[in-house]
Design goal:
With about 425 residues, the chain is an alpha/beta fold. It has 2 domains: about 190 residues, 3-Layer(aba) Sandwich (Rossmann fold), CATH 3.40.50.11720; about 190 residues, 3-Layer(aba) Sandwich (Rossmann fold). It has 17 helices and 14 strands. The strands form 2 sheets. It has a 7-stranded parallel beta sheet with strand order 3-2-1-4-5-6-7, with helices on both faces. The radius of gyration is 22 Å and the shape is globular. The two termini are about 45 Å apart.
Amino acid sequence: MLYSLALYLFTPLFFLYLLFRGWRDRGYWQSWGQRLGFCRKQVHPGGIVVHAVSVGEVNAAEGLIHQLLKRYPNLPVTVTCFTPTGSRRIRALFGAEVAHALWPLDLPGAVRRFLRFTQPKLIIILETEIWPNLYSAADGLGIPLMLVNARISNNSFARYQRFHALTSAALGSADRIGAQSEEDQRRLLMLGAPPDRTLLTGNLKYDLHLAAELPAQGLALRQGWGAERPVWLAASTREGEEEVILEAFQQVLQKFPQALLVMVPRHPERFDEVAGLITGSGLSMLRHSKLGCEMQGVSCYLVDAMGELLRFYAACDLAFVGGSLANTGGHNVLEAAALAKPVLVGPNTFNFAQITERLLASGGALRVIDSASLQQAVVGLLHQPEKAAAMGAAGKNLVLNEQGALERTLDMVSGLLGYSNS
């Protein structure tokens, strides 16, 4: 098959890419054998495999995985991903409750080894992960496979259309497909998904699992920073955004001299880089890893840790969600909204287009385009706490009203497994 031949030719370049990325994140230098399907020691065979490519998909799958562990205690769960940050998030969320391995490249040999070692009774794949060889091999072995929380962005749709025969064959072998929205369902059907197996289930990201202790954790952070200080959170920031945010914050300080900017870079390999940008801007900074140090005179708090973003959402007055000023498509805005925080986003939100547009339409978010409009939005919300509260309430209501995808997805799981332990 030309597809497999192209993958074999691409594989050396892929491992060169991992070598290059490893200079910034050593996680890319680890577990290369797992990328070729050698995962015997990492997995628990005979259970459920859940694949979530990276951090965002892992977060979306959190509630689903917890329910699988609860409803099917006799079936081991193996959670796979493709990135080191995804691996770290899986371990942080689930610890020893699940087995964990990296998802294999879609090479015929790697796929056969992966399936031989995992021997799954069900494979659940999150969002837009269409791997023709894996889908075909699972179908040939009679292993049920679900594509859940499925979404097809404009870019993905155009790309898959160019390889329609390959995409159609892969989707045709899926036993169930749960689409996030009517538009996603329409696009999946156009790409060859079977109409009788493609259902509108909604978006799992709305079914957030928020720990009951989050408000108390947020309050504790605020007390450590200074309970009366206005707090602006810049979450999941990407390269090129921090400079814009810091420029805007300099202007915010002219109106609110006691304001605190909490900066959370998306990738851990950039923590030191962002620290340099903050100090280079002339702002006083404290790193989260130095928690307990004196906050007097500190205007910027750098979160140099992974997996703690929800605590900082709970502690802030308003949140800018990154990846949206940079042209990377934005990140999930629902965590901030679920905690009733007013949300600011940049112009580039194509990765979460439907969610972001709905939050904007509900009044739970504002869009900014540059440093000046970002500063104006922050100052406006800090000057009008009643407006900020109304935005937060609107966002939280949207999240609550859109929930239900988790139960619909679990119904599909139960149907494919043929029983339920609920």
